[in-house]
Amino acid sequence: MPVGDAGRTRGIYVAASFALAAVVFVGSHLLEIPGSLAELLKATKGVPIFDLSPVFSIDETYTRIEAYGDEGRRLYRRFTVTTDILFPIVLFAFLILLARFTVERMSLPAALRWVVLAAPLGYLIPDLLENLTIFVLLSDFPQRHDVLAGALPYFTLAKRLSLYGSILLPLGLLALKYLFGWRSRPE
User: Fold this and answer.
1) What count of other Cβ atoms lies within 10 Å of the Cβ of residue 185?
2) Less Cβ crowding at N or C end of the chain, within 10 Å?
3) DSSP per residue over the chain, as a string?
4) What does the alpha-carbon distance between residue 162 and residue 168 come to, in Å, rounded to a whole number?
5) For 5-18, how does the pLDDT look when each residue is reduced to its tens digit (9 = 90+)?
6) What are the domain boundaries of the chain?
7) Could you tell me the pTM of the whole model?
8) pLDDT tens, 112-149?
9) Rounded to an integer, what distance in angstroms lies between the CA atom of residue 111 and that of residue 168?
């Protein structure tokens, strides 16, 4: 982990990891380049992907997979093992640095420290499980894996909620510290 004086995470590394995550997000999600989300959405002809629009019906999951077509399924499989692995790992690096930066600057109860530090894993693990599930469903189509199809939207939901928590909890704690001096630790 990038650390500064006395083993503390430096703010410049948090900012740099955020900038890197932003650059990777723009390249992987907004630009229409090979392997990007924009390319995938074009190939699926507007049929939403599970990462962006979860489906809580197993039959609807398979209807959507069929609607992607062969080319859409091929590109979606590639997306899940390339772009949709790279971005979550880069984002995880930012989240873990933000969490460390926060807990190192505050006197928090042990349980709250643990929650702040563990939250980024709560994002990464469901995201990787979501990717693995999507890959298997797409690869084996038309064979059905109803248990995986049923679990898929819950991985997506857990990923999203944990992502929000991984960002909002440390930022909220830092706001309390810097605005009100709450649980400040001597610098």
Assistant:
1) 11
2) C
3) ----GGGPPPHHHHHHHHHHHHHHHIIIIIS--TTSHHHHHHHTTTPPPTTTS----HHHHHHHHHHHHHHHHHHHHHHHHTHHHHHHHHHHHHHHHHHHHHHHTB---HHHHHHHHHHHHHHHHHHHHHHHHHHHHHHHTTS--HHHHHHHHHHHHHHHHHHHHHHHHHHHHHHHHHHH-TTB---
4) 10
5) 556 778 889 999 99
6) 9-180
7) 0.87
8) 999 999 999 999 999 999 999 999 999 999 999 999 99
9) 17
Cα separation of 16 and 24, whole Å? 12
Looking up tokens 């992907």 gives: 49
Residue with tokens 């489906």: 55
State how far the Cα of 89 lies from the Cα of 74, in Å rounded to an integer: 23
Structure token digits, residue 22:
């932003």
**What contacts 180, CB < 8 A, 6 or more positions away?**
none
pLDDT digits (tens, 9 = 90+) for 70-93: 999 999 999 999 888 999 999 999
